[in-house]
Amino acid sequence: MKTVLPDRQQSLVQWVSQATGINSFGVKVQLRGNDLHILCEGTECPQRWRTLSDLLQALQQTNLDVLTNSEQTSIYQVFVYGRRKGEQRPNWCHRVHLNQIDQHLDQVQQALLADSEKSNQPGGALIVSNESLARQGNPEAIARYLSETLSTLGVSVQAKIKLHQPKNSEPEENRLWIFCQSSYSPDASLLAEPIAQKLRYLKLAGYQDAVIVSQVRGETAPDWLLRVDLTPPEVMLKEWARWGDVQAIARLLTEVLLGLKVAVQVSLKESTLHIFCTPAFDHLGTAPIPDKGVCLEAILPQLEAIAPQGILAATVYGQKAGDKQPTWIDWVALPAAKHPAFATSPLDLANTGDEPAIVFLLERLLNPDLDWRLLTGGIRVLLLLKNDLLHIMCDAPVCPARQQVASKITQFIRQLKIPGIMGVRVYGRRAGNKEPFWHYGLDIEQRQRLVPQATPEFAATSIYINDLVTPETSEPILRPDLTTEEVQNFVTEVARDWMATASSTAKKFLLKSQLFTESNQPAEHNQDVQGIKIALVWGTLGLLLTLQTDWVLGRIIALNTPSSLKVASVTIPSSSGHKASLTSGKNQSEKTTFFPSTSKTKSPPNQSSVFNASEFTQSDNTPTDNLAAAPLKEKATATAILLAARSQIPSFNVRQLDEQLALYKQRLARTGSPPDVLIIGSSRALRGVDPAALSKALATQGYPNLDVFNFGINGATAQVVDFVIRHVLEPSELPKIIIWGDGARAFNGGREDITFKSIAASAGYKQAFQKTPTTTSSNDLPENPVNSGAKKTTEEKPEISTYEAINQSLNQALASVSASYQNRDQIKSLLQKQLLKLGHNQTVASEKQLTDGASDESTSQQAVDFDGFLPLSIRFNPTRYYQKHSRVPGNYDNDYKSFQVEGQQDAALLEVLQFTQSQKISLVFVNMPLTADYLDPVRRQYEQQFQQYMLHLATNPNFIYRDLSQQWIKTNDFFSDPSHLNRFGAYEVSKKLAIDPMIPWPVK
Question: Alpha helix (H) ranges present in 27-119?
């Protein structure tokens, strides 16, 4: 099949072909980051130096940026490969730096000359490395230097220098900006430390810090920002040495004495510094002992300039390595002996509350590896004292883990016993972020503070102290002064009292019934006779109560059933009918007759509707501004219920799964083939991807007439999706691409999977695993499901055991005399409505798994359209929403209980990956958007774990991961509640997916 190349690649291929004389069919190009890869093929492998000579001469006269589109960043390097057609690996490869073409051309000319003279010693000009050029501070050279590492990840780099005006009236400073562009969203933890190491390795002068900006190509807003501290290693060492850090002092002295071939070892005892000078290179033991005068002349000025805190004197020794006794000793007084301000140790200063001393001790505690700190900048600490609480912010290129730093900091602060400090609050964030990723609190003394306290504002850097990072609109954390231990103790005491009272009451009730006795009482002789009498009495009462309850329920159903309800026949369009048959007037009237409660009566033009477009009650303060969305389609309520009721497939104990499956089977029977795109997942997919909008957006991208169906199910976890794809649907009923929309909580292996347990206990689940796998096409589906079901029943009769036969006969006998058995579904519905009304004002708005956080469950189940999509017009307003629902933090959310991605959900996902790969089905997982209200620090931490898990799986073939979780984090108008999109958000998600170049949409 002929592959059509993009215009930019066609122009590059033609240019290479004209420059080298190689046929365009033998030239292939690929752009990765800032690198251009050119592959030259022929029946014989192209000659290396001749091809390079032609290509370099063309590069001298051509600007490659003109041959690429405007969105492509500049090309820094060109990799040229040569191989024979049919071979897998190239015979040769050559890298060309575009800023040194003349030197490359000289090298190639020398190689050609050497070949002509049959010499194997090619010379040429010296190629200067990008690292040497980048050390001079040139932004283009810095970009080329970083591109050597990042281009392999598909990330292109640009570097700029911008003037920065500090907010403390200091003069303007240069700030280095690094812009990273890619066709996907790389995780910050993947790029943070490599970029920080490479930038700090350059030891750039004149820059205080650098800002790394990551952006997806084509987007206007950056994905994330990262700040890299460019403070030179020498300055960092002197700062710590000033506080008396022995390791830093040893590093500084080693750098000074290494030129004198003297090695230094430093130790601290009490307030005296001991410095041992030995020969640096003395493998044979013949080197002379370091000269006393030379060593003192080099060491003393350094110690005087450093003036280490709390160190009063220094003793310098001269000896050979391994000697027990030094050859010479000298003792000198340090500035701390003369100036009392330098005499106090950092630990004593910290005990008095000195903030710089506390910062140094904490940074030294959190950065035990000095080399790693100098390499990456390490973990930085910022302090803020508010009232009786000490707030400590920790940031680093990769956000420090809470379990790594929180316990260390709180234990250290507790040992200090700083006067006036009654509690400590620790926060963690990535350098450059405005908000902490997590927080941790501990009270050192009992605090009686009842007023909620807001999260403090930390400076972005220690220099720009007024550069606050917490926005003014951020909401305060509820009771941050309460520690986890206090909450757990309170809950434990309440639970203990409640359990004791409940067990005592239950014991008294059981003893009064005379069915139970105390375990320590002696048994009576007439126990059996007395037990038989009691059993007869209670059995008779139970039977009478059952009969009376059955009669009362029958009367209630009779009173609540309208006498005018009539059932008419409903016709289902066959596969030979056209698409409009689903909405024809005849079918609509028949469905309305069967379900009188769902009939739609048009209101007069001048009468305002009580319901909005999604059939939810219209509020008085509904936003009036219009948002883009696909037109609403006809609801499939009546058809879904009827098809599920008449289906020959047993129920799965999940009503929405039954109805979605019935709609999907009906779509297969009508079209004769599966849809082109299948959307699956929980309620976040059910509400979050609009098939109509996606199909329309794909048509504008060159994929017309694609059929899209939404198979979202409330509460669907990875196990549920695996069961539907591999066991409910046949392989012939699956499309070539599946869009799986969900998030971290659907993959929590630590919580109870209630939805899947309900399905596993159903008759449909048992049949799905008992049936033999068949690959029938959709054309073989029966035109009349009733007749085909009768034939199937007569042909296949499952074996029934004697116990099951007796059980069925008793059930039928009791059903014939019962007044309520035939109407048990109506009784269940009435009880559910009454319970919902009773507990409406007391219900906690924790997102339950069966509804996956969905409010108005009954409405959502009955509002899907014929594409399986649930369009909601409600817009999330936090003020109104939390008046009706409680705000549940992440650490009390059952969806994240015992959060772990390993376990049964992980196993289910791996099964899906293996199955889709075997069926050559492309699987695209979309991490659906969430609001800022939902993403508290606890949920953010779990989202980060889930992100790393998904990025690890993204290396599998036919699996694509797209992260939209923070795409519209503050656009509440796109959401119906904190974690679910409405139809406006679904419209935006559908458009974004349609233009995503990473998704292989099918072509008809």
Answer: 48-61, 64-67, 101-116
Residues sharing a CB contact under 8 Å with residue 989, sequence separation 6 or more, in sequence order: 688, 689, 690, 926, 928, 929, 964, 981
CA distance 148 to 156: 10
CA distance 71 to 785: 55
Count of other CB atoms within 10 angstroms of residue 280: 17
* Token reading at 880: 């109104």
Ranges assigned E (strand) in 628-779: 677-681, 708-712, 737-742
SS3 705: coil
By CB atoms closer than 10 A (0-12, 13-18, 19+), residue 1003 is exposed
432, 227 Cβ separation under 8 angstroms:
yes
Reported as type and span, the H/E element at residue 146 is helix 139-150
CB 900 within 8 A of CB 749: yes
Q: Are 666 and 638 in contact (CB under 8 A)?
A: no
Identify which of 339-348, 516-525, 608-617 has the greatest average pLDDT. 339-348
Distance CA 834, CA 828 (A): 10
Q: Could you tell me where the DSSP H helices lie in 800-868?
A: 802-817, 824-838, 857-861
Averaged pLDDT for residues 118-140? 66
- pLDDT, one tens digit per residue, over 41-83 is 888 888 888 888 888 888 888 887 777 766 667 888 889 999 9
Q: Is the pLDDT of residue 893 over 90?
A: no
Residue 898 has phi, psi (to 5 degrees) of 50, 50
Q: Please state, in angstroms and as integers, the Cα–Cα distance from residue 724 to each residue in 655, 660, 680, following that order.
A: 14, 11, 9
Task: Report residue 434 as tokens.
Answer: 């405005």
Contact status, residue 247 vs residue 370, Cβ threshold 8 Å: yes
In the Cβ-directed half-sphere of 461, how many Cα atoms lie within 13 Å? 17
Residue 265's CB is within 10 A of a number of other CB atoms, namely: 14
What residue ranges in 291-437 does DSSP mark as E strands?
Answer: 313-318, 328-333, 380-386, 389-396, 423-430
pTM (2 decimals)?
0.42
User: How does residue 275 score in pLDDT terms, banded at 50, 70 and 90?
Assistant: very high
Is the pLDDT confidence value at 477 over 70? no
Count the neighbouring beta carbons within 10 Å of the beta carbon of residue 109.
17
Cα dist from 688 to 67, 221, 566, 982, whole Å: 39, 22, 37, 7
Grouping H, G, I as helix, E, B as strand and the rest as coil, residue 333 is: strand
